[in-house]
Amino acid sequence: MAGVFSKHPYDGTPKTYFPRVAVTVTEWSRNDCWIGSATIWWSKSKSEAVPAFSVCWGQSVGYAVNNAANLHLFMQQMAVEHSGNVRTTGPKPPMLAIPDRQPISERQQLAFQGFVQQLVLDTGWQPGAPTNLWLVGYDANVVIKPTVLPVSSYGASQPMNTKAKAQLEQALTCSAIGPRFDLAESKLKQAGWNPDQGITPVTLAEPVKVYGFGVRKVAVSRDGGEQTYRSYLARVTVQQLVKSAALKLGKDGKTYGRLTKVGELSAGMEGGETTLTCTVNTEGSEG
After folding, report:
1. What average pLDDT score do residues 123-140 get?
2. pLDDT, tens digit, for every residue of 199-210?
3. CA-to-CA distance for 43 and 132, rounded, in angstroms?
4. Main-chain dihedrals φ then ψ at residue 182, nearest 5 degrees
């Protein structure tokens, strides 16, 4: 679902009223990461279910200021055709993009804003189209953990040991990926990572170093014949990354990357953030 609206932008015509994305929040106990599921509608009759994914956001004042405008515009969406106050997973959007009959607690208000702001960034949503992204609501059947640690306490209470950090840093830089990745996986799981969630980013309790840059947001997929290790580099340009990671311009004259002993490194953009991806082909290997 990452960058879905960037890949399929609205051009002002009814043909691009789709895709539409309906999101249901399934876990909202943490104040830096929520989990949801979604339905993507490619047309009035064709839909695609998106399994559980995490949305993790920054907690800085700068983050809130930079994304406040899009939050306001998202909440002001107007649907051409809508289902009124009946909120469903589509294809018809509700009258309001945000549920007004499922109020969340005062304690969750800041987290709610962070969730929506990051969701807007991750999907590449832009104002203009009739309502194409909305929250169905909060799944009341999901059991929520009774206690929530503050972000600072969460990071302090679960430090990443040297071996786990080394395993993760080596994989993200595409320099070495050993058969034992268990320590790194345990830290990823503490950050909300699910091995079956695909390329869905999670936020680490503390940063790791990737070619000289501090990285907290990562996405790891270790299923099938291809493994992916992706770093999200906030406030880093593609040009800066290319220089630091010694990437080369591809034959297409547009993309940057290079081969390593482990796999292929490539630079890109996702949701307005610079990304560095290590892709490893595991077909025919034991790893």
Report:
1. 85
2. 888 888 888 999
3. 11
4. -65, -40
Q: Is the pLDDT of residue 5 over 80?
A: yes
Cα 25 to its chain centre, rounded Å, is 14
Tokens of 210: 């990737």
Question: Is the pTM here over 0.85, yes or no?
Answer: no
For residues 57 and 114, give the distance between their C-alpha atoms in angstroms, rounded to a whole number: 6
Cα-based distances in Å from 107 to 23, 35, 57, 236: 22, 17, 16, 32
Check whether 148 has a pLDDT greater than 60. no
- pLDDT score of 130: 86
What is the DSSP code string of 114-149? HHHHHHHHHHT--BTBSS-EEEEEE-TTSPPPS---
Q: How many Å apart are CA 205 and CA 266, to the nearest integer?
A: 25
CA distance 185 to 138: 29
The mean pLDDT of 181-192, rounded to a whole number, is 85
**All structural domains of the chain with their residue ranges:** 4-138, 157-281
> What is d(CA 12, CA 14) in angstroms, rounded to the nearest whole number?
7
Q: Pairing mode, if any, of strands 264-270 and 273-281?
A: antiparallel
How many CB atoms are closer than 10 A to CB 211?
Answer: 21
Average per-residue pLDDT for the chain: 81
